[in-house]
Amino acid sequence: MNLCQGRIGKQEGASLAGIALVSSAVFVLDIGETYRYGNGTYIAFPGAIFLAFMLFLLLAEAMRISGKKDLIELVDYAVGKFAGNLFVAILCALLLVNAYCLLSRFSTMVHALVYMKTTPFPVLLWIVPVVVYIAFRGFECVARMAKCFGLLLGVALLLELLIPMRGYEAYRLFPLPTEHFDAIAADAFSGMFATGPALLAILCMARGLQGVRSAKSAGTIGALISIALVALTQLAIGLTYTSTELKSIFVPLYRLNLKLVQESYFFRLDKLALFAWLIGAIIASAYYLYGGASLFCRRWSRYDIRPAVIALGVILLCVLAAERAWQYNMVQTAFSFVQRYGSWMLIVPFSAIAVIALIKTHFMKRRHMNETV
Amino acid sequence: MLERVIRFFRFDRRNGEYELLETEEGTPGYLAGEEQTSTLPQKEDTRRICATLAENEACLRVAFRADINPDLIFRPFKLGGKIPALLAYLNGMANAEQVSDFILRDGMRPGCMEHAGGSLAQFAIENVFTLGEAETSSRWADVTSAVMEGRTVVFIEGAEEAVLMDTRGFEHRSITEPQTEKAVRGPQEAFIENLRTNITLLRRILHTEDLVCEMRDAGGDNGIRLALLYREGVTNITLVEEVKRRLARINTRTVIGMGVLEQLTEEHSLSPFPQVLQTERPDRAAAMLMQGHVIVLLDGSPFANVMPATLFTLMTSSEDVYMRRPQGTTVRIVRYIGAVISILLPAFFLALALYHQGLLSTEVLTTVIASRKMVFAPIGAEMIFLLIVFQLIREAGMRVPGSIGQAIGIIGGLILGQAAVAANLASSVVLIIVALTGLGNFCIPDYSTQIAAAFFRLALVIGAWVGGLLGMVCLTVVFVAWMASLKSYGVPFLAPFSPKARSNKPMILRGRVTMHQQAEDVLNTREEKL
Amino acid sequence: MKRYRLLALLVITATLLPLCGGCLGPTSLDEYGYVLTIGVDQGKQKKFNISFLLQKEGDSQEAQTGAGSYIIAAEGDNLFDALLIAHVGVPYELNFTRTNFIAFSDQVASSSLMNEFLSISFNAVKIRQSAKLVIIQGSCVEYMEGLASTDIPNVAKRQYSHFQTYEQEGVIPLTNFTTYQEAIRTGRFDIAIPVGRLDRSIPTEDGSEEAKQQGEEQQTNEKDTTDGVKRIGGLRSYLHGSALFDGDRLAGLLDDEDTEILLLALGEFENGSIRISDEEGTVTFLLKANGEPKVQMNLGDTPHAAMQLTLYAEIELDTAGNAEERWDSTLKAALEEYIENELARVFAACKALNSDAMRFGRYACMQFSSDAAWQDYVWKQKYKQMTAEFSVAIHLDYRAISAHVE
Questions:
Q1: What ipTM score was computed for the predicted complex, to two decimals?
Q2: pLDDT at A49
């Protein structure tokens, strides 16, 4: 079976996890509904990454102790191959849903903010083939792309936050949602559907990352950097717009420097920043698409991953087109379902797998010791 | 502990954590699986040399069509005044003075074969002929190939072996200045078409006993030879084997020039990027050899193919190392900026002009509008037209003799540009952008990479015309993805940036000269592992 | 060959996919007219008379002669209506991506029409929401004409320096559309917008009869001078003071000195001069502010704010005199008291207009622990009963004049 996985280093892995986490947390989670009780996104969104990171650490530790080389092996070890199919299918579906969310969001953004003379579909026809192409070239290509653009995108994001600094006002963060910590925690938990798959896919590709240890440190670095970046981004948004305004603003990050009254040379770079984020989203989507195709191939196909990538890419394009064309409500309903229950679908089975694997290893070691004695 | 923490944040990897070099032999093909390359059936000449002179002469005459081909000289003589012998060489390929002074004069000396016993040919080499390089062979294949190379063959009556002596002395160009890789402070000599001279040029710089020079048949029907150079014990053996594997699979009619050889050995023939570095500078080739690269020299080609090549190698000039570190770094940064301008600027301007006018200041907008008032072509067509004109001027300048070429550059650049603006065929702003693009393009040191940049530029311009910044970004991502997945002889094209290597050399910033003493760890050399 | 055929098929499909969508609507930059300013006056037939100030490029690529600006205008019930009419008369599409500011006549701003105009989707015509807002006393068209100058054909640059100069002098507040929206949507504060006027005593550049007549009549008509003072030369249009809003309506005007005090309270004052008089004569201070004032807000039954303001003043002393004592003993205290009184006066003026232009609502909202509680509080109703006290501390920075001429 040709998975086109290759071998990548920690930098590549960390960049990949970072780009995927930041893209998902900032653009998929940032919707008007998250501001219903005030602005707590600068806690909730990094919190979503943190919770996913905890699950990631738990699974990585279980893999290390049980000596399994990647997540699929761990799943098989814990619950057996037959039941494991279900778990792999869940992760595969969540990865593809995340790819869909990012592509859907960005095609709408690029259309609404830049190409208003056309419809979102031609925009999709530009973006989706590129995503499929990168995934088609393999994991090594996706990871190297992440490394090439990672630092650039990070600096671009920080610049985007620094330029409108004069427009930041602390009062906009108020009233602080001190009475709504339960809602913040709930948001953080439900946000895991967007942050979890990015980290778990790293564990699935642990062989390509030179082993579990390397994958764990890549995921750790990526998660920590993205927690910081997402917190800073959401804080900057909160310092620029009040929660009342944020309920009705589409892509507030794009509008950060609109509060400034004194123009400068960097004042109109927001469009360039949008395309920089688009690069991040393309890489992240390709990562999710490759991850989904890789899981599918390893479990249900023995052949080349590339036909699977193309097939899943075409399915993604069709769903996105259906959303744009005539089945908007149906797709949105499905998406809302995943948004609501995705975190449960992720945390319950995979925590269980980690725990079962740990217990099983513990008993096996004990039995082995008894037999030795 | 501290070291571990530092390494954690520096993302360093441990030594030898993974091998960068890997053979591409096992990579399966696209969807349809690996295609079997059909090979032409090769006839091996197994004939032996006869003991009679007449038969040997007849064979040679037939082989070289001597009845209509006057190039082959046959000279019968009496070896030691009594044994009939026949000397043959190609007129013009062999040095006639050497033939007459060290073969005929010595061979016809009376009594020189008096104590001959055993193999006559071997006796003649040891006691009669006073040439440095001589050997015996009993295979016809060796004889014909020796004659074609300019060596002289002597057949002796009664001997089933021929004496092959190196008398090569054909005319060749003398060593001149490099034409495409000029350096202000570096050596001013370049490779020439003579393989021997080229090897000598390298050996003159590299006084290392581990330098191996393997002579091989290039694989074409024209029987041209090549030299494979590497440092035994330093160069990664996997790399050497991979190069040999690819050379061995060459099976074509003609191999003329390094360009053909490059295409025959590279893995991704559709890639706009070159996967080997071609240099005409012996100093550069020598430096690459020292770092653990493999070099191929081809007879009749004034270039050396350096393998493997990464993006950063292609963007490096030999002069960088001759300058002091800040100077070298500055020059490199300027070069990279030039390359970025060359590839992105026309497309970026076009995207802004057609889709994102808000990103241009009012001053720029009004200036461009004023300059385009009477230009009839759409701005995209105007841009492509000027880019093609630029390529025309460049090609015309390159193909005509030196002084006329320069004149064409001036005429094209100044007069044609001015006339195009005056005739409202082009606007001055677009002309300036194309001129800047051209300047940036010339900052790229490697010619093949310049052409690759031109390809990307044109594709991006079309992308920007159709899709604005979206088209440009999508195509840029595709090109970077291509580079990210490209490998040159198993070494990732973006190394040592991705994957990261410990030495980070060569990259955009020039490293210390002391660092140049070490071999490049992207090559995973054996020296490094010791 | 099979391998290459498949690869070629993939490449062609991938290339054709974007092209299937067609071009994404390109329009060459020379097919647009770039609107730099939008002026909104009250219309006669329709609700608005909307005027557009456009940049005019030079005659050819070599010479920039003929460059300048021109105005087109049309009436309509909203921007899109007016655009439809305006497009009929021009051979290009109007492009709003470089629009710097939107001017409203005081007549429009006093009614709910301004909010009605601004409630349309700016994104549809790509007007940047950072476009600044200006209230014009009189006609917006005339104001825009007053900005024209043949000496400086670059209108964008002139507009930029126009705002920049006044803003640096601290006599106008700068407000953009996004801030306006924040004020309207959140109700935390009211905005103050710069006021533009026209000095009709300055002749127009074309030297028309009307201009000459205006020039002759300047002595008699005080309104047609620059704030009642005769001025020679310069642009006819100028900015002066601020317009205070109560929600979405213009409530009243502040002159430039009151605006300076308002900016002090807002923390937007950078430097400027203030004059005070004592027995020995009038003294002008060069004041500098450093950061925002500190505000203690006590909501209670009636909101009460205590504002602390720190300012810096540079004093140049003659080495021969004993002026330092005079500054410390009398002038410093007098200056502090003067500014405190002025702040109280301007606050009272704002309150009288029911305009929270000093933005105390920003501090009030910090006292709440949930968004719902803040929404229930209804700040603007409480603001009517609000009291405020101001305390000003001035740090004097003495500089001795060392040059002594004998």
A1: 0.93
A2: 96
Q: What angle do CA A40, A45, A51 make, to 5 degrees?
A: 120
Contact pairs from chain B to chain C, CB under 8 Å: 111
- The structural domains of chain A, with segments of one domain joined by +, span 10-372
pLDDT top residue among A267 and A19 = A19
Higher-confidence position of B214 and C313: B214
pLDDT in the model for residue B529: 44
By Cβ distance, the residue of C18, C129, C374 closest to A175 is C374
Looking at the predicted structure, is the pLDDT value of residue B371 above 70?
yes
Query: C41 and C139 in contact (C-beta within 8 Å)?
Result: yes
Q: Give A81-132 pLDDT, tens digit per residue.
A: 899 999 999 999 999 999 999 999 999 999 989 998 888 888 999 999 999 9
Return the structure tokens found at A193. 């559907």
Q: Determine which of C371, C377, C378, C379 to mutate to test the interface with A (most A C-beta atoms within 10 Å).
A: C371
Please give, rounded to a whole number of angstroms, the shortest distance from the CA of B125 to a CA of chain A.
57
Mark out the alpha helices in chain A (DSSP H runs). Answer: 10-23, 41-66, 71-113, 120-137, 139-162, 181-190, 192-204, 212-240, 243-246, 270-300, 305-325, 328-372
Range with the poorest average pLDDT among B103-107, B166-170, C5-9, C42-46: C5-9
pLDDT at residue A258 in the model:
86
Specify the number of domains making up chain C.
Answer: 2
Is C208 a member of any domain?
A: no
Residues of C in contact with B468 (CB under 8 A): 24, 26
* Cβ neighbours of residue B463 closer than 8 Å, sequence gap 6 or more: B347, B471, B472, B474, B475
- Whether residue C155 is found in the same domain as residue C273: no
The CATH number that applies at residue C320 is 3.30.300.210
Which pLDDT tens digit goes with each residue over B243-260? 998 898 888 888 888 888
Q: Which of B84, B103, B78 is nearest to B167 (CA)?
A: B103
User: How far is the alpha carbon of A332 from chain C, nearest alpha carbon, in Å?
Assistant: 24
Report whether B217 contacts B249 (CB < 8 A). no
How does pLDDT run across A4-34, given as a tens digit for each residue?
Answer: 777 888 899 999 999 999 999 999 887 778 8
Q: Is residue C283 part of a domain?
A: yes
d(CA B484, CA B492): 7
Chain A positions in Cβ-Cβ contact with residue B24 (cut-off 8 Å): none
Domain membership of residue C344 (yes or no) is yes
Q: Which residues of chain B lie closer than 8 angstroms to C129, CB-CB?
A: none
Residues C62 and C162 in one domain: yes
Chain C hits for A171, Cβ within 8 Å: 188, 362-363, 365-366
- Kindly report the CATH class assigned to A10-372: mainly alpha
Least confident of A269-273, B403-407, C192-196: B403-407
Q: How many residues does chain C have?
A: 406
Contact B421 C61 (CB under 8 A): yes
Q: Please tell me whether residues C241 and C264 are part of one structural domain.
A: no
Dist CA C312 CA C257 (whole Å)? 18
Residues C143, C292 within the same domain = no
Altogether, the residues listed in chain B come to a count of 530
> What is the C-alpha to C-alpha distance for residues A221 and A217, in angstroms, rounded to an integer?
6
Gyration radius (Cα) of chain B, Å: 29
The radius of gyration of chain A from alpha carbons, rounded to an integer in Å, stands at 21
Compute the residue count for chain A.
373
pLDDT for B30 beyond 50: no
Looking at the structure, tell me whether residues C242 and C151 fall in a common domain: yes
Tell me what the mean pLDDT of segment B468-487 comes to: 94
Residues of chain C with pLDDT under 50: 209, 211, 215, 218-220, 403-406
Residues C242 and C317 in one domain: no
Specify whether the CB–CB gap between B488 and B275 falls below 8 A.
yes
Residue by residue, what is the 3-state secondary structure of C305-332? Answer: EEEEEEEEEEEEEECCCCHHHHHHHHHH
